[in-house]
Amino acid sequence: MKDQHIIVMAARLNIPVNRAAELVAVCRFEHIKKHTRWIQAGTPYTDLAYIVEGAVRTFGIDDDGRDISYLLQVNNDFTGDFESFITNGPSSFHIETILDTHLLLISRAAIQNLIQRDPFWLHFRVQMSDLAFTEAKRRIEDLLLYTPEQRYSNLLDRSPEIIRKIPQKYISSYLGIQPPSLSRIRKRLIN
Amino acid sequence: MKDQHIIVMAARLNIPVNRAAELVAVCRFEHIKKHTRWIQAGTPYTDLAYIVEGAVRTFGIDDDGRDISYLLQVNNDFTGDFESFITNGPSSFHIETILDTHLLLISRAAIQNLIQRDPFWLHFRVQMSDLAFTEAKRRIEDLLLYTPEQRYSNLLDRSPEIIRKIPQKYISSYLGIQPPSLSRIRKRLIN
DNA sequence: CGCCAGGTTGAAGCGCTTCAACGTCTGTGG
DNA sequence: CCACAGACGTTGAAGCGCTTCAACCTGGCG
Fold first, then answer.
1. Which nucleotide is nearest to A187 (CA to C1')?
2. Which strands make up the sheet holding A56-61, listed edge to edge?
3. Tens of pLDDT, residues B73-105
4. Which residues of chain A are within 8 Å of residue B122 when distances are taken between CB atoms?
């Protein structure tokens, strides 16, 4: 891992660079080919991962058997089933790569070791949950307050990288609509 | 506060009863009359509160000036602007009582004092965020995976107390629909 | 080159929204 | 104590946007 990556990661996690380096030291790298099921819903998978490069989606299947994207993640995002990490129980979603992806994997045990060694990491652990919460909150606001068209615009503003890397059929279910609707929304927005 | 309340609270927070008592000791009680704006969006308000008895709603105003319920809370729920608590910044929602409500208020400072005195409370702090996250996650799943009608059924199963205590006009925006739609959904479900 | 997945487009349908009218209940003042 | 005003919920009718289903186009990959 290059120094540049560690600096970006430190900024993203809001911790000093030397702490980020400490964290990276207990992680392992993994390269995963595109279209690979990384986590299977129902099986415990308590590792978290930082996406160095690539694209990943977290999704579930609804009562009608439809594939629904819960999260779309790209460079410098965290991925993994955070609920599984918290509860040590089975994960509730599937996770797949969309592109070839470089992950930096952090096991639950590694985090707990860090926490035992130095209280800094317990504060960091608080911050992880806080971040997960505020992101989830923002998503609820998005779904409650905006129309599908506004949600697409917001996504385009907030993360053009997602629009660029991820096929529309996955973006549409992330926005809570069907693929033809997203196609028509895009058409409307051009004019 | 009666012992019975402390036992319920301990169960709800997943901490021993003696710890719950320790927490209550640094809280203050407040009785708030119904229809009272308790927290104003935009102003910092970093206290959290445990609802001993009553009903409260957390809401925002969308771009069209509509009132949208973000959370509906009843007995033994936590309320307050958790994001404001985390960031120490302004709260992003209004909070109002719907009924006369008995609150147990916990200031940010009181929590931080506890954390300084005993690492138990830092672990508790982690758990608070974890709980906030898992609740937010469940709400996202609800909005993404289910139709308005299913969401109403789910709410009815999960929390009849909300249906009983809170007027439909607030429930409808919580479900992401308009009051007449909720009225018709209820009618359909009777048959 | 040809297949196939992904995206677009048209047409029809459905459910939620909107607007307005009407009951019902509550609480408040005369 | 009654009467009335206002808030809340319900209901009807019309409209709109997303869904559904199917056909077609395009580009990537074997």
1. C8
2. A37-39, A94-97, A56-61, A67-73
3. 999 999 999 999 999 999 999 999 999 999 999
4. 119, 122-123, 126
